[in-house]
Amino acid sequence: MSLQPDSSAPSTHIIDGKKVISEESLPAINPATEEVIAKVPVATKKQLNEAIRTAERAFPSWSSLPVEERQKALDKLGQLFEQHLNDIVDLIVTETGKTKDISHIEAGMCVPWLREGGAKRSLQEEVLFETSDRKVITRYIPIGVVGYLFFRVNYNIQSPSKCAAITPWNFPMSLLMWKVVPALLAGNTLIVKPSPYAPLACVKFVEQAQQVLPPGVLNTLTGDNELGPWMVEHPGFKHVSMTGSITSGKTIMRCAATNLTRITLELGGNDPAIILPDIDPKTLAPCICAAIKRLYIHEEVYDALRDELVAYARTIKVGDPAQPDIGMGPVQNREGFNKVNLLRGYIDDCKKHGYRFVLGGEVDPSQKGYFVPITIVDNPPDDSKIVQEEPFGPIVPLLRWRDEDDVVRRANATQYGLSASIWGKDLGQQSGFGVEHGRQGLIAWTQIQTVTINRNP
């Protein structure tokens, strides 16, 4: 059966293993055509309470299962996901505007996350101290009902009730798996809130998961700008993880303080890449990854790499990803499109200050869809908007550097700290920092408990 979205058939919540709708709904828009592809239900407080109650009911039996049983369930989920991979890819293409190739890469990454990251990982008890009289162990126990939000807010936020959700349009399914797998593996029950802008692949995954998981273990609610704060302020949640902007992260922290709810925040990034002088410009140009927001290029190779990047970008066709030979689709939603292009947007700001575009910079206002051409800005100042903020669109500044200590300082001069990279051949000159996922990521979804056992009281 095809999973192509149909605007006549509304999307649903999944609560207690069942499809649930709401009286109110919002349209999900195909960003390439601006057509309505589905109606997305707006959850009520009553439905949120119902979802939490069912997750609470499911928690004792799910958390008490041997970890090997939860691993088997995640492995079965991975097999099921793989069987429906092409259908999920079609949904990602239609609701996010990503090309089929990139959508396939994202969906394909979810399978090993489920089958390897979930089915072959666990947290064993650790013996800290042991004698004939006493044994001290640390163990990692489930927290309870937990939640995951895709969440962003507007710039004029006055209170939590004014939050507006704008989905991270780049990797909605892989971001989801990063949370679902460790949360379920640890023995928690989970409620997921995708954004109404791109909820369809997420809801379909949760719907399919009901074939494997007991009712209430994995639920999903879609909603408007009120649902996120309701979830974070609800005393039923023991832990909430959120992917979104720094501004939304501050809002989530304020909401979570109501009940001292534990939170994990994956916030915005303005990821710098430092390009060393020993690179080959022609070889490197096609390899620069999508997550990079600022390119610091050594002056010895600056002109050559800039020209190669422009030449390579010119070969990428921008358009509707449902059409053949398209290398890049639209920005995922109108708010993001305006942020990149219009009003106080980045292209507008670069023009206002006279920064040089070596590619792009002109948006066709007559074109249907949220299309922004690949845009490269040539060496703008460090204090410019395009360097200091997170564009979240196909626009990137190139910046010259000469001194190594100075470029590291410039790369670190930001409030964003998500990731960074160094590109070069001399491994002795490179270093790294920070961790994500793995054992420490799994621990974040547990309560650490240290137990002392007195053998001869």
Automatic annotation (TrEMBL):
The keyword Oxidoreductase belongs to this UniProt entry's keyword annotation: yes
Identification of the protein by name: Aldehyde dehydrogenase family protein
Family of the protein in this entry: Belongs to the aldehyde dehydrogenase family.
Statement: the UniProt record of this protein carries the keyword Disulfide bond: no
Keywords on record: Oxidoreductase
Any one Gene Ontology molecular-function term assigned to this protein's record: oxidoreductase activity, acting on the aldehyde or oxo group of donors, NAD or NADP as acceptor
Residue span, Aldehyde dehydrogenase domain: 24-148, 163-427
Alphabetized SUPFAM superfamilies for the sequence: ALDH-like
Active site residues of this protein: 266
Lineage, opening ranks: Eukaryota, Fungi, Dikarya, Basidiomycota, Agaricomycotina
Source domain of life: Eukaryota
